[in-house]
Amino acid sequence: GRAEMLDSVHASGLGGTFGGNPVACAAALGALATIEEEKLVDRANVIGKVMVDALNAMAKKYPVIGEVRGAGAMQAIELVKPGTIEPNNEAMSAVIKYCQQKGVLILSAGTYSNVIRLLPPLVMPEHLLKQALGIIDEAFASL
Q1: Is 136 part of any domain?
Q2: For residue 139, what are the contacts with CB-CB under 8 A and spacing of at least 6?
């Protein structure tokens, strides 16, 4: 920034109650180190690929799926009344209930609460991810 602006603040004149807290800074550095050591960015991309492949296959089978979208491990499934772009809240409720009964917790999101937002833990084993995606597929098949 401009020197006259940056130099205008007197010592301890800019900050906050918790600004520079050593414990918070140490925790942040630890979190960043874990992300690097565990290669969690790469893991997000692997999880995303598995999810996108499975969700796109579901979208081809079930006309209630209007769109699949996302980035990396965060994906979304928009539920619509088949042949329209109208939100399908009835299907959403049924899918949520089915998945919960099978041990997969999902939630509705979006302006019209007709979007399933998926964001699995980056440390989730692939076999559990595929099992959860299989249960979501079963939920759509049950509609």
Answers
A1: yes
A2: 94, 95, 98, 99, 102
